[in-house]
Design goal:
Elements lengths: L36 H7 L1 H7 L1
Length: 52
């Protein structure tokens, strides 16, 4: 198997792993299962600031 030739912007440099499942009950997803970005950013604000 040959490794893909990734471009710089295609490689994740930092990840934030969330152990909590995203559901409509915890307000991370809309009823149509789209991510509520505003809620996600608010929840992980400290982690995002630490890597920025």
């Amino acid at each position: 198997m040959v490794a893909p030739d990734w471009k710089g912007y295609e490689i994740a440099k930092t990840l934030i792993l969330d152990p909590e499942e995203w559901t409509t009950d915890n307000e991370m997803l809309t009823p149509s299962f789209k991510v509520k970005l505003r809620n996600l950013l608010a929840k992980h604000d400290e982690e995002i600031q630490a890597i920025a």
